Amino acid sequence: VSADGLLCCTISNDRSVKIYDVVNYDMMVMIRLPYIAGSVEWVYKQGDVKAKLAISDRNSSIVHIYDARSGSNESISSREIHLGPVKVMKYNHIFDTVVSADDKGIIEYWNPATLQFPEDGVNFRLTSDTNLFEIVKCKTTVSTIEVIYCFITFPS
């Protein structure tokens, strides 16, 4: 389900992606992919013109971005984000950044517009400057990613 709660999508081994209008409880678009999807995540902010959907290829390290409302089978952009197939992605709409993990446990941060490391919103330039490689060192993988939006304000 998208961050604004308006859209929902499903992926299937038959290479189809189905986009649903949550409010009207109606399937609005079906996309046929030339690959089997591995992971899917809505990557747009409320009010964006395009309802961007990131879909990873189950058998490669490529992530494709689609405009879900267009109904087109053609991706807007595509890029090899990881070295292996992407298992999971999570979008942080506050920082307009996606956090993704591949089948080797490597975690990457990227901007959905550029498919590159974000210029803003993170406090490091290289993932080697963090403890993100601990998962790889422990020879395990990531099964889910969550973003916690926690803002504490104190009265003045």
TrEMBL record:
It comes from the Eukaryota. SUPFAM superfamilies: WD40 repeat-like. GO terms for molecular function: isomerase activity. Keywords: Isomerase. InterPro entries: WD40/YVTN_repeat-like_dom_sf (IPR015943), WD40_repeat_dom_sf (IPR036322). Gene3D superfamilies: YVTN repeat-like/Quinoprotein amine dehydrogenase. This is Peptidyl-prolyl cis-trans isomerase. The lineage of its organism: Eukaryota, Viridiplantae, Streptophyta, Embryophyta, Tracheophyta.
